[in-house]
Amino acid sequence: xxxxxxxxxxxxxxxxxxxxxxxxxxxxxxxxxxxxxxxxxxxxxxxxxxxxxxxxxxxxxxxxxxxxxxxxxxxxxxxxxxxxxxxxxxxxxxxxxxxxxxxxxxxxxxxxxxxxxxxxxxxxxxxxxxxxxxxxxxxxxxxxxxxxxxxxxxxxxxxxxxxxxxxxxxxxxxxxxxxxxxxxxxxxxxxxxxxxxxxxxxxxxxxxxxxxxxxxxxxxxxxxxxxxxxxxxxxxxxxxxxxxxxxxxxxxxxxxxxxxxxxxxxxxxxxxxxxxxxxxxxxxxx
Length: 286
Hints:
The chain has 286 residues and is an all-alpha fold. The protein has helices at residues 2-11, 41-58, 62-79, 82-98, 101-127, 140-161, 194-217, 220-223, 226-236, 247-262, 269-285, and strands spanning 27-28, 31-32, 177-178, 185-186. The strands form 2 sheets. The protein has a two-stranded antiparallel sheet with strand order 1-2.
């Protein structure tokens, strides 16, 4: 998938031509955003980032691992996903920390505190109304970045207007409109965040559940495992991508979470299966 993504970017042609709706949205800064056979360039970028933790265990030779890392980074660049690049940097930091067991516990504590304080500051800022409900950017790229804060501003507003959310059917169309130079944008049609989507659907219960899941993954033993790293990366991508809105990502997300938590219970069949599989991969990598 990575090689095909790079091929699409270099040739400036989609492998499946003429089948995409709103093809103009697959172009950024004058270059196409690789999609290959995924549902969206962002979906492809998350799948590629999720593959990073498995490289060292799946490939036996160092030169082959290095080549795989280069291909994945280049293919993520081909999708033109800024969020995926942040995830790559986050994974690299995790990878370095995991190698030093003495730092592992301290790092996860710092990460938890940082995530908690960051979430509190962001929530407090939006609560005070710093999140604008109007986009002022005149270019599509800048407006897309600006829309993120607007989206979360409406999500905070929804928490107080609908404490238990709008229900599983989602936010009704026409409820929240963001003014822009491109015309009014209906938030219900463009929720580019799993966290915001969860808040709209389930209110405070959804917010607490999503944050609890994130903190549950930030444990030394879970971040040290391949499945845990991959699950954390996919979950973190939920800050800028609606995970369960995409069939492939939603399925992968819950599978990785199940494997991560199941591996902690050695008495369960799933836990033993995960541990056996992990040992086989580690033996092969050695």
